[in-house]
Amino acid sequence: MRLRAKHLGLRLSTWAVLLFLHFPIFIVALYAFTTESSAFTFPPPGLTLEWFEVAWNNGDVRDALSLSLRVAATATVIALILGTMAAAAVWRRKFFGREAVSLFIVLPIALPGIVTGIALRSAISIGGIPFSFWTIVIGHATFAVAIAYNNVAARMRRTSPSLLEASADLGANGWQTFRHVLLPQIRPALVAGGMLAFALSFDEIIVTTFTAGNQQTLPIWMFTSLVRPRQRPMTNVVALFVVALTFIPIVLATRLTRNTEGTTG
Amino acid sequence: MVTETTSASRLDRISGALHRHPRLRLALLLGLPLLWLVGVYGGSLIALLSQSFFSLDDFSGTIDRSLTLETWGDLFTDSNISIAIRTASMAVAVTIGSAIIAFPIAYYAVRYAGPRLRAVFFVLILIPLWSSYLVRVYSWKLILAREGILFWFVDKLNLNFLLEAALSAPGIGGPSLSASALGQFIVFTYIWLPYMILPVHAALERVPKSYLEASADLGAKPLQTFRTVIWPLAIPGIAAGSIFTFSLTLGDYIIPTIIGDSSPFVGLAIYSYQGVAGNLPLAAAFTFFPIVIMGIYLYVARRAGAFEAL
Amino acid sequence: MTKRRILALVMLVALVAAACGDDDATTGGPMTEIGDGEGAVSIIAWAGYIEDGSTDPAYDWVTGFEEATGCEVTVKTAATSDEMVALMQGSNEYDLVTASGDASLRLISGGTVQEVNTDLIPSWDQVDPRLQEAPWHFVDGKHYGVPYQWGSNVLMYRTDVFGDTPPTSWSVVWEEQTLPDGESNAGRIEAYDGPIYIADAALYLMAHQPELGITDPYALNRDQFNASLDLMRTQRDLVFRYWHDAFIQLDDFANEGVVASTSWPFQVNYGQFTGVPVASVLPEEGATGWADTTMMHADAQHPNCAYMWLDWSLNPKVQGDLAAWFGSVPANLAACTGNELLTDTGCATNGEGNFDQIHFWKTPQADCFGMGGECVPYHEWVTASVAVIGGR
User: Fold this and answer.
1) What does pTM read for this prediction?
2) What are the backbone angles phi and psi of residue C358, rounded to the nearest 5°?
3) How many domains does chain C divide into?
4) Fewest CB within 10 angstroms: C28, C29, C146, C181, which?
5) Between C85, C193, C239, which is nearest B61 by CB?
6) C209 and C325 share a domain?
7) Do the strands C40-45 and C96-99 form a parallel or antiparallel pair, or are they unpaired?
8) Which domains does chain B have, with CATH numbers?
């Protein structure tokens, strides 16, 4: 009996937390349909589909969305490559400075984004580098590496080194071992790390403000539009659109990581 | 065909060489990531710190690039120190709050939920990460407003006295939830919560079922099992999550501009010294606060095993 | 050992940066002719200052320019003068800025903006003579920009709270008192989030504590400055939030029970347009105000398009539409007649006759603008205002 009751408490609090996490998203969805153009009030005075049309026809939104997607994709690829290399280097080996290396890799996410942002900004201004697509990518990849590294390193820690020895014994070279033995092992971590890195980059504004110049990523577009009448309801439409767009990849990725987890665990 | 065999044999040779020279392999693997992090990131940090030895011309607002310690002298004023303390306290509160909220859901997902339900949880926790942070913060502004959604429900339920009591609490209250420290706490916790749930979930997932069975077999009560087996194994996860929640709160400059009574936070102060006042030297010097606070925090978190669980 | 090495490295980088940073601004005077447009121009402006019809299709003075010149306009909105200065100094990615008097002189003395050749601006002769050689853009016989609009800060209030007795004094935002609806003003007023707002405190003291001897709210000696800060500190307890963004302020009036604040005519107009019950007055103490100048970056990337915009910005249609939209007064008085949106009484309503009563924003200077004595310089205004907002 007592166990049941406790169970119930746990279940209730779980659903309460999920409600807490999703209620604001529900509000975002609701106000995508409001008839108000600037100051929102509750309950909304009326509902309309107008903003979907306005958003659809807005070139700025499309440009910003496309820039954000390209930045996030590029930063994620760079991060996965660098993060995997670093994780492989640190794995199974003790070398001088190993601790320092792992600390340094984590530093960009451990230090607040504003520090990263303003540091990159100083480097950009001292070096006289013009703002471009790549200045944004560099900013994002810097913290995304840490995410990729963490995921891959955690996975590698749980991978038995004997697998690699077996592969070598069977005559596989380093590349073949990586391709056929290690890669399948770390694939879930790459998917999870890549997803998280992509999501962080896609929604990043703190660092981007300092490295974008007057380019508009989606969050920067949102930031200026949220305080502009007629554009404010549009931001809700766009946010909703992004959630809908990402829902399927999230579900698929969860499937993928779960399944492999199941077979190896 | 020919090229394939030669390239394959070349690959063989390279991989053989790498196998024989672990140091070379290490250097190759580590070279590029380190070049990036030390070159780009470390270089930028040094560039940033170097800015703090410049000063700002009072009138024209241009940066005077002659070396001086003047800016550092401007840093340690009462008002700046109180900004650092206010921010660090909020970061601690948010971290503790998220840990308390994250634990039950992670625990429930790992211990009691079936694989299907667990996948549903996972998706539900990930979705907020994908829906724009800014838009969600603004929706909180409406939720917490004096004539907003929460007040509307509270009013319908005749619970106004509870809310008024919370708002009249000294230090955390204010004229409206959206203009109070309490409101800031709620929004910060909300925004960073997934970053706590994920590592805690991952840490709990690694607790082998056999441990729990063994503990039960040895006659431990559930509470005892929790205290002696689960909790110690969860700590690295919480520590890892806390690095996110702490650091993200420490550096955020957007939430304090939208929610709260305009009292400056570290991120906001740095942002406005740089972006609003154009005083990059003082902004650079000001990063000293988050760097030192984070340094101390990382030291503590590392001892709790955070880096192994990130 | 390592610590010392890092410090040495830091100092070295600083030295290199110092050496690199010596970009000498030897510009050879203003342009003498306008070439072909570069296809783009980017402008830093106040919210609502440059409208392309996306807020309200009737208010659009960008599309016509783009069609006429082929220069695509991008606008970066800034909320304070300091932000404008910082953005302009940050890089040359912006060609133009609509700078108020508390930014313009800083931009000129920092070498951030260039001299403008008024011969290249056909509409120049139409500029209000009171503005043509105004000290906030005319320095050493050179023009550093083209006047855009001017106006006064106003006291915005909720009509449902004040009813038939609109406030007549700034005291509703400076001193705790009971409002017409029977409740205190504590937690129901807002203040402006910028160091220049200290001048509003000084202006209030000018009327209410004449013994302080304040004659210019931007030239304050130490005692006058401290008295103003004391007033700011007592106000801190009444303030709901320091407003930074025009639309967020409007949000607060609509949703948060804020009932009075210093504001711009723009928020009042837009609030009324969207159904927020607000109105405004110019209180008896007078008001601070702004006179804005469009200035060009010293290293502007699109100088030809920038010149074309400068001329376009003076066009009576643009000036009149903007004045109607923002609640400001045109720099080209020809706009005051025959504009549909502004109507013929618009200029008077927006305060065209108040020019001499407004204390226009200007950057405080240590030499009290040459009037003698010692004044508190602007950088102290900045730190003091951060401290006051932080509750110190």
Assistant:
1) 0.84
2) -90, 135
3) 2
4) C28
5) C85
6) no
7) parallel
8) 1-37 (no CATH), 70-309 (1.10.3720.10)
